[in-house]
Each structure stands twice: as C-alpha cells, then as structure tokens.
What we know:
CATH architecture: 2-Layer Sandwich
Helix content: 25-40%
Largest sheet: 4 strands, antiparallel
Amino acid sequence: MTRLLCRNVVADFSQWKSVFDSHADAQRASGLHVKHVWRNIENGNEVFMLFDVTDLAKARAFLTSPAVPEAQTASGMTEKPDMWFIA
C-alpha cells in the first residue's frame, strides 16, 4: 500500500482544519484517503497527515494542481509543506 505523509506548519490549527476538511471530497476523488491527522504536542500548529493512496498518478496530479496552493493560502500555512510518498 502506498501512503502519503505530509507535514504542514500553520498559523492557526482551527482555520487550517476547516479548510482541510472542506477538501475531503476532492482528496478522495484524487485517490487520497485520510487515515490520521496529528499535531505536534510542543507546537500545535505543526500538523502531520497520513493518507492511503489508491491512485498514485491522480494523487500526484492533485498535489500539483492550481487548487492546492490556493487552499494552502486560505488555510494559513506559514511554510511550504513537506510531502513524501512512502510504501
């Protein structure tokens, strides 16, 4: 099973989570299925997400689509995200 591990640093977790949740349908349509969302216990605005990936090509296309930077800005991300496809 391929998975996607992401790390985001955000200005406000609640704002980020609201935007993140609003994209659930788009994520699933792109072959990304959220398994876990964690917060750093020493910095609650550092967020880690683990997704199951059912279609690697669709997932990569989604992550490089113009909609993603717009959502990142709207969610209050303060750094470029770190993303790794892992197996």
